[in-house]
Amino acid sequence: MVFKVDYKKAYDLVSWDFLIYMLWWLGFCPKWIQWVEGCLRSASISVLVNGSPSAEFIPQRGLRQGNLLTPLLFNIVAEVLNGLMRKLVEKNLFRGFSVGTNNVEISISQYANDTIFLVRHQWKTSRQSKPF
Known about the structure:
- The chain has helices spanning 16-25, 30-41, 70-90; strands at 2-6, 48-49, 52-53, 97-99, 104-106, 108-111, 114-118.
- By secondary structure, the chain is α+β, with helices and mostly antiparallel strands.
- The chain is elongated, with a radius of gyration of 22 Å.
């Protein structure tokens, strides 16, 4: 089975607190984490309403599209899903497909905000008793 997930408005929904936690958990240096947090919290937004700009406001979550760091930061958040999949595979609760000459097992593939799950399922057939 191949199951494709396209995160709707994925960049808009990223929690800054969770992103900062993941940077810390993955071992990024404190200075780098401060820089990323400064970039996130320094933005202000204004929207056009009937052609006129609204008052500026500061967003509370999300990653700016078009920013060169955005794909990297999103992948850091999405790494949690990769970690969960690794645990499921380790516990034999999930099996992917073996590919290539080295039989590398692939259970998840991620690119930007698209994720593909690759599942191999072994159908179990049960013996049914014959009717009288």
